Amino acid sequence: MTARDDSALDGNAIGGLLLEVFGTEMTAAVAVCGSCGATGPVAETVVFLRAPGTVVRCRNCGAVLMVIIRRGEQNCVDMLGLAALEPR
Amino acid sequence: MAGTAVRGRLTWQVATVETVRDETASVRTIGLAVPDWAGHTAGQHLDVRLTAEDGYSAERSYSIASAPGEPVAITVERLDDGEVSPYLTEELRSGDEIEIRGPIGGYFIWTGDDAATPLLLVAGGSGVVPFRSIIRHRHNLGSDVSVRLLYSARSLPDVIYQAELDDADDGVAVIYTLTRHQPPGWAGHTGRVDRRLLAEAAWPAQRDPLTFVCGPTPFVEAVASGLVELGYPAGLIKTERFGGTEAP
């Protein structure tokens, strides 16, 4: 799996899911990769919707930034790959 | 940052189909009546959720095709192996109800506040949908922002909104390229959007255009890197990808 996989979407595609999780608009939020330090809007991250679960990767280095798995009524959110996430 | 478990917020609401309009053989615009619509910005999306009788549900995100202040509409392209688009483009009738949530997105948007910055819009196939909202919004505002829309389609019958685009206001230039089939006597561009076509059709980088690119993933990657080669700052190019179909 690379950042150029043609099945990849981008962070725009999970605006609704992120709104559900964070309660606010997050596609324009600035994400900082915990692996390479690349900084950019969530909209420009690489997103796989059927990973299974939703996997968000860094467009610069491909590291996993965030994983969101829906379990019944809950979303389980792993953000260990993010150094920072700042809504705008 | 630590992981956590968050209870899903219920933001879905029921919308009623008011109008359906075939744009091309595989593309349909669906007008919706949404009782609690907060109003949207050009370029935003909404999510559609379909639930089967056995409880299985599928969600997809669609760009909003109408301008802010207009009734909500989405334009949907049928994907033959899709779970949602065949229903939306073939089964849905006026009066039907579907679940939606939105508006969604704060990045791939154009508010029209900046009158001095020209716009470059680059669309692959149904990637033109958010740009219809932007161009209609520009019209409704009475804005004189200079716009170039470079639109790549397989053939002329695959062009969505052609009559409306051909009738666009002064200041909106629509440049087509037809990648597979051209009608007899076609004098426009042919072939995929490449650096040569971008050099001809895009604003010079010195004008610092605000740039939006929307289309299938390989199309967006090719256009964005072509623009960067032409001197566009990557930070001024906003991109939106809708997946793995081949470039139109």
Q: Please name the fourth-level CATH homologous superfamily of the largest domain in chain B.
A: Nucleotide-binding domain of ferredoxin-NADP reductase (FNR) module
The low-confidence parts of chain B are none
In the residues of chain B, how many domains can be counted? 2
Mean of residue pLDDT values of chain A:
92
Give the class of chain A from helix and strand content and strand pairing: mainly beta
Overall, the morphology of chain A is globular
**Radius of gyration of CA atoms of chain B, rounded to a whole number:** 18 Å
- Our measurement of the CA-to-CA distance between the termini of chain B, rounded to an integer number of angstroms, reads 40 Å
* CA-based gyration radius of chain A: 12 Å
Largest sheet of chain A: 5 strands, antiparallel
Rounded mean pLDDT score of chain B: 93
**Total tally of structural domains of chain A:** 1
Strand content of chain A: 35-45%
Largest interface: A-B, 38 and 33 residues
Q: Oligomerization state of this entry?
A: heterodimer
Give me the strand/helix succession of chain A.
EHEEEEEEE
| Contiguous uncertain segments of 5+ residues of chain A | none
Mind describing the biggest β-sheet of chain B? 6 strands, antiparallel
Inertia-based shape of chain B: globular
Q: In what order do the strands lie side by side in the largest sheet of chain B?
A: 5-4-7-2-3-6
Distance between the termini of chain A: 30 Å
Describe the protein's architecture and organization.
The complex is a heterodimer of chains A (88) and B (248). Helices cover 9% and strands 39% of the residues of chain A. By secondary structure, chain A is mainly beta. Chain A has one domain. In chain A, the strands form 2 sheets. Chain A has a 5-stranded antiparallel beta sheet with strand order 1-4-5-6-7, with no helix packed on it. Chain A is globular, with a radius of gyration of 12 Å. Chain B folds into 2 domains: 13-104, Beta Barrel (Elongation Factor Tu (Ef-tu), domain 3), CATH 2.40.30; 119-242, Rossmann fold. Chain B is an alpha/beta fold and 248 residues long. The A-B interface holds A 4-13, 15-16, 19-23, 25, 27-28, 41-44, 70, 73-80, 82-85, 88 and B 1-9, 11, 45-47, 59, 61, 101-102, 104-108, 216-218, 221, 238-244. Strand 7 of chain A pairs antiparallel with strand 1 (4-7) of chain B.
